[in-house]
Amino acid sequence: MSLVFPNALAATTTNLGLAKGSFWFGLVCLGSAFTCLLLILVDRGQGRGWPALAALVVIAGAGVLVRLPLARRPVAVAVAAAASVAAICFYAAVLLPNLRGMDSSDSVFLSLPKIAIVVFGVIVARSYPGVTPVVVAWLLGEVPVAAASVITGHGFAFDVPAFSCMAAMVLIIALLRFSRERTRASEPVISRATSEDRAATEVARAEQLSSVMVHDTILNELAVVGAVAPGSLSERARDQIRRSLAVRRAGSIRASDVATAVLGGDVAAAVDDARADGLRVTVAGDVTALDTLHPEASTALALAVRQCLANVAAHSGTDSAELTVIATDSDVCILVADSGVGFVEAEMRVDRLGIRHSVRGRIAGIGGSVQVWTAPGAGTAVSMLVPRR
Amino acid sequence: MRSDTPQRLDPLGGLTARLFAFGAVFVALVVAVTLSLSTIDQLSNPYLEIAALVAIAAAGGWYVRAASPFRAPFPRSSYLIVNVLGLAAIALDSAAQWGTNEIVRDDWGPIAFAVLTLTFGSWRPGWEIAVGTAVAAVFVGTLAFVQADTFAADVPALVFAILPATPILATGAAASAFSRSLVGSLVAWRAGVVGPATSAPSDGGAPASHLVHLENHVYPFLERVAENAEVSADDGDRARVLARELRTLLVLDGERSWLSRIVRTTDDPQRIAEHLSEAQRGVVRSLVTHVRNNAAFEHERMRLTLRGDEWEASCTIEVPCVAAHNPRVQLAPYVAVARSVFGTVSWRIARDAMTITLVFDPSTTGSTTR
Fold it and tell me: For a tag on chain B, would you pick the N or C end, based on fewer CB atoms within 10 A?
């Protein structure tokens, strides 16, 4: 998940929000004008002003029209603009004769629909970027009302609220672009940090798997070469070195299929190899449950078992081990036990990586858990619990 | 009800919005002072008018303070305080004209309040703004309604209640719709995003040392052994040395945290860095990158210290500052983003050094991938 919203999308979402907000802004203005007029008309009981209410409904309809997806088409915008001009002309013509003589084109009842038309212009600005739609919308509202006011003898008065609203919307649209460029300048750095972290996580995981594989293959081969007496190396040992080197040639020291090919990918192969190296391994329990494991879990478990048996052969001081498989509906548990010298896990040298990396690390990597029971002179039991999934 | 706000989901958007908060406060104050002076003949108590101007200034001041990226996210309490101070200004303005107010339209209180309300959409959830707007509109409408007898126009009293409430209702509805729209877009984006494409780390891409050792020394040795029929005593010695070196390097690589790869001087004895979530790691990385790329810092001397226990941990970044540079402004976006993913973010820029402390709960943000 990225930490920050991409700059490329920020403008689109803000403009959408601005358009939706403007729509409701306009509707509230029209609703307020409608309600006030209705109250006045009812109070005065005269019928001459009623058609003005219909004009307000038409302007609201124009707002709905420009909010629809088809408002991206010029025809729809033109229809909405024409309807707004016609409606506000009619509205002013009906209303002005009913206003007091001192009232002019800046009357609050005339301002409200003009403001509504201005903010509907903001909706259009979503499809036609820039401030032009807002300025045009202001003129579409202002000019007919001013003309009607002059014609009906009310004169012209500069409508400060409607102009202020237009100016505010123009400023908002213009400043949004300017300020967005400044304040979101850090977005690429933060987004890149997120993607770099993702890459670094993958690298770290690969290196962790790599170190486990290196421990199980290359370190073993070096140990064999370091332990043999000078002379000829057995063909079996040479084959094992070639197989371990094949991991490198495969180009990926962490791929489970390569691990399977080089080390033997199932528990049976691990047991067979341990037996070939002279360890007596007794197998008990529900061995068939191993077949139900996910291939990835099966490989990890087999490699961990291989390491446990190698530890028995190398460190326990005994030549026999017991391997028990216990299965439940959700998990499979393998217990590798010996009656050897045991050890104190907390006192293990930090460079003894077998239990830590090849057993614990592997099993944890597939969502399982490992427990080790051991004490000096009391043997060792390693339990590996893995989910069946 | 959803408590997400645009600022929480897009902290950088909060920086843009703060400029509009400044603008709204400026406009509100200009409107208040201008209309207050132009309607001075309607005042019955100038002291109350001054108190009203002080109240709207306080509302604006609190608003700008709460909108700071260094205090993000904008809390509900601040929204309440700004609303209460704004309504207090409206009430005081009305009281200052009580009995002498002739025209409701030129009262600055509702207009100034509406200007502030227009920009709330970036900070709070839509429903909260809707509730705040409704309360404010009823308050303003009621105030105007009870003064209806003093107004000059011959219209029903209810009209006097509706007209001053209209700017607040209109801007409140707009801000509420803006907030809901932005939150909807941001939530949809978060649900749909699968994560950014990975890019090679610019600061931690060096291969692990054991891999280099394998390529340079171990593989060539084993290839030679596998090809030859005989193994000499020297080969045995060499194999033991290589094994010892390789084992040591495996341990060192295992001990190396992701953080120590990006900042050389990292003090993290408890390996707390492993408990940072992906988002928190991203913030730390971006802060480190910012420090590296900014001339205001001596990034070579940057130091990271992680300390903590089971319940609370902290990651502290300390870096000396270069005199003649002020890093505060450029730091704002990073602090804003950090505050969206860390429990607490504190920062201090003294004369010669910057310290940022990021506090988190390691028990809830633990990472299993490292």
Answer: N
Do B164 and B218 lie in one domain? The reply is no
Which pLDDT does position B195 carry in this prediction?
54
Tally of domains in chain B:
3
Assess whether B317 and B286 both reside in one domain.
yes
pLDDT at A39 over 90: yes
Residue B201 lies in a domain: no
B339 close contact with A: CB closer than 8 A: no
| B198 within a domain of the structure (yes/no) | no
In which residue are the tokens 């009262």 written? B107
Q: Is residue B368 assigned to a domain? A: no
B246/A222 Cβ within 8 A: yes
Of A28, A219, A248, the CB nearest to B169: A28
pLDDT digits (tens, 9 = 90+) for B268-326: 888 888 888 888 998 999 999 899 888 888 888 999 999 988 889 999 999 998 877 77
Q: Does A10 contact B13 at a Cβ distance shorter than 8 Å? A: yes
| pTM score, whole prediction | 0.76
A11/A150 same-domain check: yes
Overall size of chain A counted in residues: 389
Taking CB atoms and an 8 Å cut-off, how many pairs form between chains A and B?
300
CA distances from A110 to A95, A152, B147 (A): 8, 14, 24
Cross-strand pairs, A372: A382
Testing the interface with A: which of B127, B160, B166 to mutate, by most A Cβ within 10 A?
B166
Do A122 and A103 have their domain in common? yes
Helix (H) or strand (E) holding B27: helix B11-38
